């Protein structure tokens, strides 16, 4: 286990930094903050007991620590690279955790349902009853029908009796055991078959549902060659077995998609690949409570519950099960979007919704690939990958929307992009930190974070917001106010006028104000913002690196010496990154293609639609990461997640969009509406006020969320942009 410890205070050299880390680790161990991690950095000269006054002094010198836990050097390198460079934090593990280091709950998730744990408590639970209602009754009826069909064939009577017994089992399989009975003289044949399979290299493990599966179908390996030469196997393999395979396949797909029912999916897979291929006389079904001494033989199935709520932690080759289940949605979206171009099968709102939902798993795969490459590379490569692909999700959508608006001559797409940019900024400054504070506050009464590092990011936010909205303020001062319709309220030529659809005209008669003043200002700001970000990197990585000083110290656990096993190699991660980016571009194209009917027919303001749906849906993986960090009392990372995204919006995404408009003219200019300016300014000021003391609780998080919801209400009741 490795720890990445990031102190807030200064450092006067390696020796003092190491001493500070050691003393603070000792203090945290006394306070119980590091006790939950299971280990501490191993330093033989750390005193076992010190006076409390001296500990308090050392604690004050160290101020506040943010401790990041990493299982090995690869995970620590990933955290170090991503945290220093200031881009998004992806919590996905890029290496496989050692089996013995996992909890019993996680170990149970990957079991093959062939372990007898004994009958503990009642088997009548809500999850088991749900299995009976969803699958049990009709599976039992199907087995009864197949049993009758086998009896009709006469020669298939042995399999008819097997199906009759399995009908009762699958009606309520809980507390029952399916066992392969021992047959004298069968060990030699089975051992020879397994030896032949090992010699030919055909053994492999299932990627999804674990457990050994055969590389090619060898029924004689399970039942013995003699048993498969009987006449009863012919009607069984032709009539009974295919029907049951289809039924169990359907059960497996449904249970897998529901995640918590994955034990039922494992039950179905093991039935079709083992139980149904055994000779009937080798299958033994018995109840746990009816036999004190179990018969001899290999246990095939033993399931005591259908639902396990912890399967949200289940991963396939390092990929979370939800990301695996959402991957077919991407294929469905692309097929419907490009094959049904005339909306004969589905409507535009459905296609837009599917395209937007497909962005979430693609964002996960892009983040996983970025983390894998960064963890296995040096700092420079990790920084380049983060800078290139860190904002690819949002930029792909924005650029495709601007291209579509330019082709149609519709300025509404540019307004949607501006609203989405503002919504991302406001949501990442208010909603993500506020939500993390509230959820983390339920478990921790008061949470502390690195005030210095948050201060650096806050300063960058002030600078970036001021730079982004500088052209807007300039246009308000020097632009010409033009109104679409005005009425004299007092009927007096010198009286008051009521005007509608007013806006500041920057073009004028010949566009002098825009081309000579506003446009050069936009280009200057777009150059200065990335420059300021690079200066901030130089500040945090070179001259004031102690603010983000990260120490990796090994944790010595007896008997635990493991080399990191990476899920994805660098080349595999690169291929997945490129494919995910390509699919992301296609989904973004479909989303912008089918967004127009929604905006024209919907009664909801386009401002509200853009600042909520378009802005926050791509950030859902980051919101989940922030919540997980807050629950682990790592609020510094939760705050940095939102702040780094907001900095990316102003200092990275907006300059790239401006650079894009130089080569591909669009209607996008850095002139925002007054509502966007006020909302952004209020968010940044409030965020800096909340983060001033370096401590927070659930009440402060609630304040941030309430302000965010108030701004959403303002956007909801605001009229759509003029002409849209």
From TrEMBL:
<dbReference type="InterPro" id="IPR044880">
    <property type="entry name" value="NCX_ion-bd_dom_sf"/>
</dbReference>
<keyword id="KW-0813">Transport</keyword>
<feature type="domain" description="Inner membrane component">
    <location>
        <begin position="126"/>
        <end position="176"/>
    </location>
</feature>
<keyword id="KW-0050">Antiport</keyword>
<keyword id="KW-0106">Calcium</keyword>
<feature type="transmembrane region" description="Helical">
    <location>
        <begin position="521"/>
        <end position="541"/>
    </location>
</feature>
<feature type="transmembrane region" description="Helical">
    <location>
        <begin position="379"/>
        <end position="399"/>
    </location>
</feature>
<feature type="transmembrane region" description="Helical">
    <location>
        <begin position="698"/>
        <end position="718"/>
    </location>
</feature>
<keyword id="KW-0406">Ion transport</keyword>
<dbReference type="Pfam" id="PF01699">
    <property type="entry name" value="Na_Ca_ex"/>
</dbReference>
<feature type="transmembrane region" description="Helical">
    <location>
        <begin position="129"/>
        <end position="152"/>
    </location>
</feature>
<dbReference type="Pfam" id="PF03733">
    <property type="entry name" value="YccF"/>
</dbReference>
<keyword id="KW-0597">Phosphoprotein</keyword>
<feature type="transmembrane region" description="Helical">
    <location>
        <begin position="637"/>
        <end position="663"/>
    </location>
</feature>
<dbReference type="GO" id="GO:0005774">
    <property type="term" value="C:vacuolar membrane"/>
</dbReference>
<keyword id="KW-1133">Transmembrane helix</keyword>
<dbReference type="InterPro" id="IPR004837">
    <property type="entry name" value="NaCa_Exmemb"/>
</dbReference>
<dbReference type="InterPro" id="IPR005185">
    <property type="entry name" value="YccF"/>
</dbReference>
<feature type="transmembrane region" description="Helical">
    <location>
        <begin position="420"/>
        <end position="442"/>
    </location>
</feature>
<dbReference type="GO" id="GO:0006874">
    <property type="term" value="P:intracellular calcium ion homeostasis"/>
</dbReference>
<protein>
    <submittedName>
        <fullName>VNX1 protein</fullName>
    </submittedName>
</protein>
<feature type="domain" description="Sodium/calcium exchanger membrane region">
    <location>
        <begin position="351"/>
        <end position="469"/>
    </location>
</feature>
<dbReference type="GO" id="GO:0015369">
    <property type="term" value="F:calcium:proton antiporter activity"/>
</dbReference>
<keyword id="KW-0472">Membrane</keyword>
<feature type="domain" description="Sodium/calcium exchanger membrane region">
    <location>
        <begin position="573"/>
        <end position="715"/>
    </location>
</feature>
<keyword id="KW-0109">Calcium transport</keyword>
<feature type="transmembrane region" description="Helical">
    <location>
        <begin position="319"/>
        <end position="340"/>
    </location>
</feature>
<feature type="transmembrane region" description="Helical">
    <location>
        <begin position="352"/>
        <end position="373"/>
    </location>
</feature>
<keyword id="KW-0812">Transmembrane</keyword>
<dbReference type="GO" id="GO:0012505">
    <property type="term" value="C:endomembrane system"/>
</dbReference>
<feature type="transmembrane region" description="Helical">
    <location>
        <begin position="675"/>
        <end position="692"/>
    </location>
</feature>
<feature type="transmembrane region" description="Helical">
    <location>
        <begin position="239"/>
        <end position="262"/>
    </location>
</feature>
<feature type="transmembrane region" description="Helical">
    <location>
        <begin position="454"/>
        <end position="474"/>
    </location>
</feature>
<dbReference type="InterPro" id="IPR004713">
    <property type="entry name" value="CaH_exchang"/>
</dbReference>
<feature type="transmembrane region" description="Helical">
    <location>
        <begin position="571"/>
        <end position="591"/>
    </location>
</feature>
């Amino acid at each position: 286990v490795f720890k990445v410890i990031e102190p807030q205070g200064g450092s006067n050299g390696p020796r003092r930094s190491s001493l500070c880390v050691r003393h603070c680790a000792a203090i945290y161990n006394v306070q119980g903050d590091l006790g939950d991690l299971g280990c501490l950095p191993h330093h033989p000269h750390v005193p076992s007991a010190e006076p409390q006054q001296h500990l308090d002094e050392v604690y004050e010198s160290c101020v506040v620590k943010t401790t990041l836990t990493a299982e090995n050097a690869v995970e620590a390198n990933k955290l170090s690279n991503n945290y220093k460079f200031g881009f998004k934090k992806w919590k996905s593990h890029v290496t496989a955790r050692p089996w013995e280091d996992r909890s019993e709950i996680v170990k149970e998730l990957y079991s093959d349902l062939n372990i007898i744990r004994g009958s503990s408590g009642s088997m009548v639970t809500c999850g088991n009853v749900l299995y009976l209602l969803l699958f049990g009754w009709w599976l039992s009826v199907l087995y009864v029908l197949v049993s009758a069909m086998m009896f009709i064939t006469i020669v298939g009577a042995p399999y008819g009796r097997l199906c009759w017994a399995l009908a009762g089992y699958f009606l309520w399989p809980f507390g029952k055991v399916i066992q392969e009975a021992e047959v004298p003289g069968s060990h030699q044949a089975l051992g020879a078959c397994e030896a032949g399979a090992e010699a030919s290299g055909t053994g492999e493990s299932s990627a999804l549902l674990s457990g050994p599966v055969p590389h090619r179908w060898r029924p004689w390996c399970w039942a013995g060659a003699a048993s498969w030469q009987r006449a009863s196997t012919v009607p069984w393999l032709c009539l009974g077995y295919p029907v049951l395979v289809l039924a169990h396949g359907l059960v497996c797909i449904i249970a897998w998609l529901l995640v918590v029912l994955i034990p039922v999916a494992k039950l179905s897979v093991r039935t079709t690949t083992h139980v149904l291929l055994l000779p009937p006389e080798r299958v033994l079904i018995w109840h746990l409570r009816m036999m004190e001494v179990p018969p001899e033989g290999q246990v095939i199935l033993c399931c005591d519950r259908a639902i396990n709520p912890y399967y949200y932690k289940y991963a396939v080759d390092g990929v979370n099960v939800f990301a695996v289940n959402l991957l077919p949605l991407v294929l469905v979206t692309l097929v419907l979007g490009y094959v049904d171009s005339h909306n004969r099968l589905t409507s535009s709102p459905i296609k837009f919704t599917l395209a937007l939902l497909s962005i979430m798993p693609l964002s996960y795969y892009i983040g996983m690939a970025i983390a894998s490459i960064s963890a296995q590379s040096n700092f420079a490569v990790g920084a380049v990958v983060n800078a290139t692909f860190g904002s690819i999700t949002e930029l792909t959508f924005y650029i495709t929307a601007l291209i579509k608006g330019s082709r149609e001559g519709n300025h509404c797409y540019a307004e949607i992009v501006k609203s989405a940019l503002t919504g991302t900024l406001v949501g990442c400054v208010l909603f993500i930190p506020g939500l993390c504070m509230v959820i983390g506050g339920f478990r921790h009464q008061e949470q502390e974070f690195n005030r210095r590092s948050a201060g650096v990011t806050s300063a960058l936010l002030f600078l970036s917001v001021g730079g982004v909205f500088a052209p807007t303020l300039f246009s308000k001062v020097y632009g010409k106010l033009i109104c679409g319709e005005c009425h004299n309220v007092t009927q007096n030529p010198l009286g008051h006028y009521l005007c509608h659809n007013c806006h500041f005209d920057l073009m004028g008669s010949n566009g002098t104000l825009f081309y000579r003043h506003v446009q050069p200002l936009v280009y200057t700001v777009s150059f200065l913002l990335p420059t300021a970000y690079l200066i901030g990197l130089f500040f945090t990585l070179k001259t004031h690196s102690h603010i983000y000083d990260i120490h990796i110290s090994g944790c010595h656990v007896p008997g635990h010496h493991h080399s990191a096993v990476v899920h994805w190699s660098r080349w595999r991660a690169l291929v997945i990154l490129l494919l995910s980016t390509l699919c992301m571009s296609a989904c973004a194209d479909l989303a912008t293609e089918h967004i127009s009917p929604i905006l024209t027919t919907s009664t909801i303001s386009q401002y509200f639609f853009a600042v909520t749906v378009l802005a926050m849906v791509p950030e859902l993986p980051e919101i989940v990461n922030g919540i997980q960090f807050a629950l682990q009392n790592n609020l510094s990372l939760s705050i940095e997640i939102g702040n780094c995204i907001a900095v990316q919006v102003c200092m990275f995404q907006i300059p790239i969009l401006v650079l894009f408009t130089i080569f591909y003219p669009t209607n996008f200019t850095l002139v925002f509406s007054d509502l966007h300016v006020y909302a952004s300014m209020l968010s940044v000021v409030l965020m800096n006020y909340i983060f001033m003391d370096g401590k927070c609780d659930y009440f402060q998080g609630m304040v941030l969320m309430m302000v965010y919801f108030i701004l959403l209400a303002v956007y909801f009741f605001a009229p759509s942009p003029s002409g849209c």
